[in-house]
Design brief:
43% strand, mainly beta, 448 residues, five-stranded antiparallel sheet, 31 strands, single chain, Rossmann fold, Neuraminidase, 2 domains
């Protein structure tokens, strides 16, 4: 029905239209924290480089924790002891070497393409008063003792899950290594038209999956709260339309294709609505679209340009960008009374806001002194902290645990993705192996 306007450049054959185990983005830590937790990761017993991408489970976990900026991983070449069981972990030995925690594990084949992966995390850090660093280690220094049954193709996902478990146990914050990132990859050719690819990959850049390839621009990917769908803008047929795509089946449909702008879709926290931008009345305005009924409700009015809506975690308000005050600034729309208030006053250009999960602040694209960067504003005080500012930083997206932001920037004259922590202390870069990358969108948590 709604598909009559669709003219695909290449037919979408589902989420696994194109699948590679290799990394499309090369994650590298450029700045960590001085107080990073020292942890020793001992190579798992009987493991081989069976993880897609020619890595072992140990290597994936090591990369995850090291690249988080929160940990200082002792590499195998520097380990004087290689314990394989809990009773072999010499706590005093590791204490003398300044290690807080030791991770050991094993891989055992239990059937055709089935393996049992066991993992133990031992706390060896002792305070000056003789107590353990972690409260739950005071009576038992074993913080984690788990086993998993998995096939070979599930090794990388399992490794990310183990990293999440370790991260949460040692920091108290839920890990994000099992989440995904959607982004637009642009491949330019001197003799042919550019190609635009809508892709999803693991947070570390591995397992890139191409959802759509087009000769026309693709923009503004947005995840549904359950992680099962993506909304995005595609200019197929030289006309902007908002699409909704199921990631399991690859099936997609047009949500809106009104004349003019159809842009900036974003899901409500309960997943029942989209906030989006249309030019039905002339200037770009914010609308709410009910996904079940198709009911469209105009939220902002007037002659200003209103764009880039972002739902509050409680669903009771929206942030959006508007020039109604003369320059692009962030405003907040309240659903209860339909009141609109300006929330940014520092800087001559503020745009692309995203709420932090606690609803007490937001991340945005921020410009002052002619330089674009990524900044955080406290909604209670109005204080702004610039997290990174290279002059080319844009399109910030917040991790579901609220601790990291992924954004688009430039490096080596190409568009790349980068990450920065919400306090600005940790920085990472994800250069693409080919083409330029833009408009990242961090997924929600994908596992319970």
């Amino acid at each position: 029905m709604l598909m009559r306007h669709i003219r695909l450049v290449l037919i979408v054959l589902g989420i696994f239209f194109s699948l590679s185990a290799n990394a499309a983005l090369d994650l590298e830590l450029t700045q960590g924290i001085d107080a990073a937790v020292p942890i020793a990761i001992v190579p798992f017993v009987n493991e081989k480089p069976n993880v897609p991408g020619k890595q072992t489970i140990t290597q994936v976990i090591t990369n995850d924790l090291q690249n988080s900026g929160q940990f200082r991983v002792k590499t195998p070449g520097l380990l004087g002891q290689m314990p394989t069981t809990l009773d072999q972990v010499d706590i005093k030995y590791w204490q003398k070497r300044g290690v807080d925690d030791v991770l050991i594990g094993s891989v055992k084949k239990i059937g055709f393409n089935r393996y049992r992966v066991a993992v133990q995390l031992v706390n060896v850090f002792t305070k000056s008063d003789g107590t353990q660093k972690h409260k739950d280690a005071e009576s038992n220094p074993t913080l984690v003792n788990l086993s998993f049954d998995v096939n070979k193709n599930g090794f990388r996902d399992l490794a990310h899950h183990i990293s999440d478990v370790i991260y949460q146990k040692l920091t108290g914050v839920r890990g994000i290594f099992s989440t995904k990132v959607a982004y637009i990859l642009v491949k330019k050719n001197k003799h042919r038209a550019s190609k635009y690819l809508l892709e999803i990959s693991d947070v570390d850049g591995f397992n890139p999956q191409t959802l759509l390839v087009s000769k026309q621009p693709i923009m503004s990917p947005a995840w549904s709260p359950n992680g099962k769908n993506l909304a995005y803008v595609s200019f197929e047929g030289h006309r902007a339309s908002i699409y909704l795509q199921n990631l399991a089946t690859g099936k997609r449909e047009v949500v809106t294709d009104y004349p003019g702008i159809n842009g900036a879709p974003t899901f409500s926290p309960d997943g029942t609505k989209l906030a989006l931008v249309l030019t039905r009345t002339g200037n770009p305005k914010i609308y709410s679209y009910d996904l079940a009924s198709g009911k469209l409700t105009q939220l902002t009015h007037g002659y200003s340009i209103d764009t880039e809506p972002a739902w509050a975690p409680n669903g009771q308000s929206l942030l959006f960008t508007s020039n109604r005050g003369g320059t692009p600034q962030i405003y907040r729309y309240n659903f209860a009374d339909k009141n609109i208030v300006r929330v940014t006053f520092e800087g001559n250009y503020n745009a692309r806001a995203s709420f932090l999960p606690n609803d007490k602040g937001f991340i945005m694209m921020h410009r002052e002194t002619g330089m674009f960067g990524i900044a955080r504003e406290n909604l209670e005080t109005g204080n702004i902290q610039v997290l990174v500012q290279t002059g080319a930083d844009e399109s910030p997206s917040v991790a579901p645990n609220g601790k990291m932001i992924i954004y688009a920037t430039e490096y080596g004259e190409r568009g790349v993705l980068a990450m920065v922590s919400v306090d600005g202390r940790i920085k990472l870069r994800l250069p693409a192996q080919e083409g330029s990358v833009r408009e990242p969108a961090w997924s929600p948590f994908l596992t319970v």
